[in-house]
Amino acid sequence: MRIVLIHPNYHSGGAEIAGSWPPAWVAYLAGHLRDAGYTDVTFIDAMTNHLDDDSLRARLRDLNPDVVGVTAITPSIYVAENILKLAQEVVPDALRVLGGVHATFMYKQVLSEAPWVDVIVRGEGEEIFLNLIRAADSGQWLEKRKSIKGLAYLDGETITATPAASTVKDLDAINPDWSFLEWEKYIYVPLGKRVAIPNMARGCPFTCSFCSQWKFWRDYRVRDPKKVVDEIENLVNNHGVGFFILADEEPTINKKKFVQFCEELIARDLPRRVQWGINTRVTDIYRDRDLLKFYRKAGLVHVSLGTEAAAQLKLDQFNKETTVAQNKEAIQLLREADIFTEAQFIVGLDNETPETLEETFQMAWDWQPDLANWAMYTPWPFTPLFQELRDQVEVFDFSKYNFVTPIMKPATMTRGELLDGVMKNYRRFYMRKALFHYPWRGTGYRRRYLLGCLKAFLKAGVSRTFYDLGKAGYWGPQTKNSVTFDFDETRTIAEAQMEDWEASADRAARAAERREAVRTQMKDRASERNEGFKMPNGAEVRACGGSTQQMDA
């Protein structure tokens, strides 16, 4: 079978300022196909190569595939849907497949707005996609689709979803094929080195209310650290990678395996040839304070911390389970270990004000991370926080759900004022860093790295790609009242998706009512049992403190 996998051409001016990122999903998916005997696989990175529709049409016409597979996160969903629309026009007999986090949870929305999508892979793709390919290869895809777990499709006019597939239990059985990528094009700007995004674990045990990853990956699983280092050694030796970022939500959760991973890197002398970064929680940094210098020895040079909010109220709303004091101490500990720190703030909820934006700046400057990032709150439509805030969401143009466009409108600010406030924080933070910190702090590697980060910001700023400022027409405070975000107001939530949400909300409400009823019943029964009951010595039953009344649960 001829299989073509495509990464959508979507750009937003967010993480791209630091470099061009390799789409790791294709390496894991194609590697699993290869091991199963499907070797006629072609990858088209439309994003990195900025391919337009005409270019994609030409490539599809030349390749004439049997299957076209596309992935999508929420902001790239319309581009992905359009790619499969092109495939319908050019190679109408090819099976058109869509995967990724957005389609997994929003399959009713996708199939309502893009009925030309033949099938959606819901959840981790490797095993589900392989089962789908085998069915298509046998010529019995239509007959077998109901028996394949983890799919969604249109059966006539009915949206059908098969039962969820189990997660991939043996991650070490997946051997990624990194040869599909054009490595000379994936560069980490601060260091000018090739960059990779390997995966050590999947899942997250925490349930931050704004995040969907814990829902997508479900259970937490960790690979054998030696196998991960085998993969990294391959990336360094055969693909010239000089920097990598672990794709994990929180690679330090399993302390034992993370330490083994670091030990293996050191044993193979890899830190001399490759450095790396991670995203993690401040609580893990606090826990591992005595190991941070060891982590630095293993090549860990950059830690991005989900500090999230300066106000403890927001941390509680996000269900982060961290405190402001912990955030500050974690940054100090990393600085003492000579590890670069990046503080991540989420801004732009309904209660955002000029004063709260100023508070995040003052805290960022007080904490003194090397880098700070203010990301616009993006109400992923499949997260718990979205369900709480749904009545306040006015924009359903998912192409703007990218962390840089203000989707939510604060009660006391316009979206233009919010953007201006965030840009003010960036200007002040990095101007002070450029003048008083980066050129003068440390020598050698530290200075080069920090100046490289500054170069990345300046490059994106001059080209007006940072935060999509060029597209929004923002040129400074004088334009805050004239910026335009070009929301497609015709985009709405499909009826089928809305019904699904409402049904889920009803189920959650009924479950909460049942729990409360059970608690009330248990208290009543306990009261009945204790009424008139005497201890063997004749005393009444008393609660802690000597009262005869029980405390409410």
Which helices and strands appear, and what pairs or packs with what?
Blueprint: E1 3-7, H1 24-35, E2 41-45, H2 53-63, E3 67-71, H3 77-90, E4 95-99, H4 101-105, H5 107-113, E5 119-121, H6 125-137, H7 141-144, E6 151-155, E7 158-161, E8 187-188, E9 193-196, E10 201-202, H8 213-217, E11 221-222, H9 225-239, E12 241-245, H10 255-267, E13 275-280, H11 282-287, H12 292-297, E14 300-308, H13 312-318, H14 324-336, E15 340-347, H15 354-367, E16 371-376, H16 384-389, H17 415-436, H18 445-462, H19 469-472, H20 495-530
Parallel strand pairs: 1-2, 1-3, 3-4, 4-5, 9-12, 12-13, 13-14, 14-15, 15-16
Antiparallel strand pairs: 5-6, 6-7, 8-9, 10-11
Cofactor: [4Fe-4S] cluster
Keywords: Iron, Iron-sulfur, Metal-binding, Methyltransferase, S-adenosyl-L-methionine, Transferase
Domain Radical SAM core: 190-417
Which whole number gives the mean pLDDT? Answer: 87
Rg over C-alpha atoms, rounded to the nearest angstrom:
26 Å
Helix amount, in percent?
Answer: 40-55%
Total tally of structural domains: 2
CATH architecture of the largest domain: Alpha-Beta Horseshoe
Number of helical runs? 20
CATH topology of the largest domain: pyruvate-formate lyase- activating enzyme
Roughly how many Å apart are the termini?
61 Å
Strand order of the largest sheet: 2-1-3-4-5-6-7
